[in-house]
Amino acid sequence: MNSWTFSMQNSNSPIYDMMIFFHDFTMMILTFITLMIFFIMYSMINNKFINRYLLQGHLIELIWTITPMIILIFIAIPSIKILYLTDEMYNNKLTIKSLGHQWYWSYEYSDFFNIEFDSFMIPTNQLKMNEFRLLDTDNRCILPFNFPIRILTTSLDVIHSWTIPSLGIKMDSTPGRLNQSLLIMYRPGLYFGQCSEICGMNHSFMPIVIESTNFLNFKNWLKSFI
Ligand SMILES: [Cu+2]
């Protein structure tokens, strides 16, 4: 992961692949429209054509009414498709629950007995050389890759938002409500995110780290709780 970048993070899940496609597709249309408007503005200012008797042109009005409608439909179809796919549960075999607190996350692996822990940000003065400032946590959320996981989230105080950009997940953690999303990771690695709902004084200091590893490692890690 770059320390900062102009573009989005590299994708690590099928949903985020689709979101990146949709972003590029919409930007293409946006660029085209913007350039066309600037060209028309420029050419209207810089010509001397006048027509005193032009009061109506039904054909051109029809064209400039229907064309934007068609463009909007072309944007709406993939947008709605991706929106509903992010809400879809498919073949998930594992459920984890992330709970927002002021100001840290805690995780519960509800399929197993008594596996739960808190995940605090590592303060800057305790960082090791290989850790990211304001992003690393003391206990990472360890999960298997290539494995559909249902992630539930809720909050115990105010509204937080559980977010991992490279997985295309941004899900509100609301007190008294349980939100769910499907999480699939392509490959092993560390995935960073931050709380994305202004939740109080230390909102910026409750990062999320997923460590994805193969299933055998994950199983061994679960055994360490026994
Ligand atoms: Cu928060």
UniProtKB/TrEMBL annotation:
Reported cofactor(s) = Cu cation
Spell out where the chain crosses the membrane. Answer: 21-42, 62-84
- Stored SUPFAM superfamilies: Cupredoxins, Cytochrome c oxidase subunit II-like, transmembrane region
Q: Which PROSITE patterns match?
A: COX2, COX2_CUA, COX2_TM
Where in the numbering of this chain does the Cytochrome oxidase subunit II copper A binding domain appear? 91-224
- What InterPro entries does its record include? CcO_II (IPR045187), CcO_II-like_C (IPR002429), CcO_II_C (IPR034210), Copper_CuA (IPR001505), Cupredoxin (IPR008972), Cyt_c_oxidase_su2_TM_dom (IPR011759), Cyt_c_oxidase_su2_TM_sf (IPR036257)
Cofactor annotation remark: Binds a copper A center.
Reactions catalysed: 4 Fe(II)-[cytochrome c] + O2 + 8 H(+)(in) = 4 Fe(III)-[cytochrome c] + 2 H2O + 4 H(+)(out)
- Membrane topology per the record? Multi-pass membrane protein
Localization (cell):
Mitochondrion inner membrane
Mention one GO biological process in which this protein takes part, according to its record. ATP synthesis coupled electron transport
Question: What are the GO cellular component annotations?
Answer: mitochondrial inner membrane
- What are the entry keywords? Copper, Electron transport, Magnesium, Membrane, Metal-binding, Mitochondrion, Mitochondrion inner membrane, Respiratory chain, Translocase, Transmembrane, Transmembrane helix, Transport
User: GO molecular function of the protein, one example?
Assistant: copper ion binding
Taxonomy, superkingdom: Eukaryota
Domain spans labelled Cytochrome oxidase subunit II transmembrane region profile = 1-90
Q: What does this protein do?
A: Component of the cytochrome c oxidase, the last enzyme in the mitochondrial electron transport chain which drives oxidative phosphorylation. The respiratory chain contains 3 multisubunit complexes succinate dehydrogenase (complex II, CII), ubiquinol-cytochrome c oxidoreductase (cytochrome b-c1 complex, complex III, CIII) and cytochrome c oxidase (complex IV, CIV), that cooperate to transfer electrons derived from NADH and succinate to molecular oxygen, creating an electrochemical gradient over the inner membrane that drives transmembrane transport and the ATP synthase.
Oligomeric state and interaction partners are given as:
Component of the cytochrome c oxidase (complex IV, CIV), a multisubunit enzyme composed of a catalytic core of 3 subunits and several supernumerary subunits. The complex exists as a monomer or a dimer and forms supercomplexes (SCs) in the inner mitochondrial membrane with ubiquinol-cytochrome c oxidoreductase (cytochrome b-c1 complex, complex III, CIII).
Question: Family per UniProt?
Answer: Belongs to the cytochrome c oxidase subunit 2 family.
- PANTHER family xrefs: CYTOCHROME C OXIDASE SUBUNIT 2, CYTOCHROME C OXIDASE, SUBUNIT II
This protein is called Cytochrome c oxidase subunit 2
Q: Which organism is it from?
A: Nylanderia flavipes
Its lineage reads: Eukaryota, Metazoa, Ecdysozoa, Arthropoda, Hexapoda
